[in-house]
Specification:
6 helices; binds heme C; 132 residues; mainly alpha
Length: 132
């Protein structure tokens, strides 16, 4: 076996080792991506908006405190509107609605004025009937 051959083999092995190193490094990333994908998709728009824009200042603790300012569904919506306004997000009514609904369904559990539209409680067909 010539020196040149041995050298080439060494280089290929090094290349292969590097390549498999990259593959090995990518596996956890891909695995995390796959694991995260379904839950990211299961996240509602309201939850996504809230976690993106609102949790910087308050944890859910804020919504559990004794003297909370959201006392019912409409004051909750008012607070959400007020806070998105305070941080100049320019949310549409439906964004506000989605976030208020997310907070309500995960924390407050107020009786919603428009409960018939709640995705959690009333099946779509029925809610369409109720909406007329
Ligand atoms: C700049 C920091 C900050 C940001 C950003 C912020 N909040 Fe708040 N939030 C607060 C503080 C402080 C309070 C409590 C103020 C009070 O007692 O009136 C509060 C209170 C609330 C309440 C009332 C809680 C209760 O029941 O008493 C709601 C609802 C709320 N925030 C929603 C939001 C939403 C939705 C967003 C994102 C658009 C948001 N907040 C972003 C600081 C913030």
């Amino acid at each position: 076996m010539s020196d040149a051959n041995a050298h080439r083999r060494q280089r290929t092995n090094a290349g292969r080792a590097a390549a498999s190193g990259i593959v090995r490094a990518l596996i956890p990333i891909v695995a995390i991506g796959l694991a995260a994908a379904p839950s990211a998709m299961a996240q509602s728009r309201g939850e996504l908006l809230y976690t993106t824009h609102c949790v910087s200042c308050h944890t859910t603790q804020m919504h559990w405190r004794d003297k909370r300012s959201a006392k019912d569904w409409s004051s909750l919506k008012f607070q959400v509107r007020r806070w998105q306004d305070a941080v100049s997000l320019g949310w549409s009514d439906s964004d506000i609605q989605e976030v208020a609904r997310y907070l309500n369904e995960s924390i407050y559990r107020f009786e919603q004025g428009d409960a018939s539209r709640s995705s959690l409680r009333v099946p779509t067909g029925l809610s369409r009937e109720l909406d007329g």
